Amino acid sequence: MKRYRVILGLVFISTGAFSQSAKDLTQTGRDLYEKNEFMEAILNLNKAIQIDPNYSPAYYLRGNIKDNFEDRHGAMKDYNIAVEKNPKFADAFFARGNVKMKLQDYYGAIADYSSAISINENYIEAYFNRGKAKQFLQAYEDAINDCTKIIQIKPNNIDAYYMRGILRINFGDLKNGCLDLSKAGELGDHKAYESIKEKCNQKNQDSED
Fold first, then answer.
1. DSSP state of 88
2. Residue 17 has pLDDT above 60, yes or no
3. Is residue 200 part of a domain?
4. Does some domain include residue 108?
5. 119 CB-contact burial (10 Å; exposed 0-12 / middle 13-18 / buried 19+)
6. Is the pLDDT confidence value at 209 over 60?
7. Which of 58, 120, 121, 162 is within CB 3.0–4.6 Å of 48 for a Cys-Cys bond?
């Protein structure tokens, strides 16, 4: 009878181990990731993917961990699968855009940020990073438009005012650029005042004429 109970207990333990869903394992992976226990997190995510190869959040989170280890191409592969499994996965498009930015594929990054925005039109981080990518390509006017969109969504976004200020100055609109920097400073961005000292206190401000 005792032997029977031991065997029965082992069956229950085994059943419990296999009854974890891909969602449960991914949540465990996420918890471990947040504790910086990255390798344990990956092992749980691998199990999640084995159980359900179509569970896109597991690929997404594993991609985040790989990106954290600067495994850019490995992260890209996981993000590719995540968006393939779920074409409406805005965060996966955003994350893949970030990897492309790090690889200096600015056009590819812009495409991914645009996909994220098409899914979530209020995705502030995607507008911001798309603006940065456009800045690298010297597409200042388009980048300015992204900053303006952020400010429409969140009127006191310090980073958007600061970046729009720099972009406007680079684009030749010194007056409005300096006003944006002033607004960023007013909202608490100390470096905005450093930029004002450097860029705005010139004798010849043609834009004010």
1. T
2. no
3. yes
4. no
5. middle
6. no
7. 58
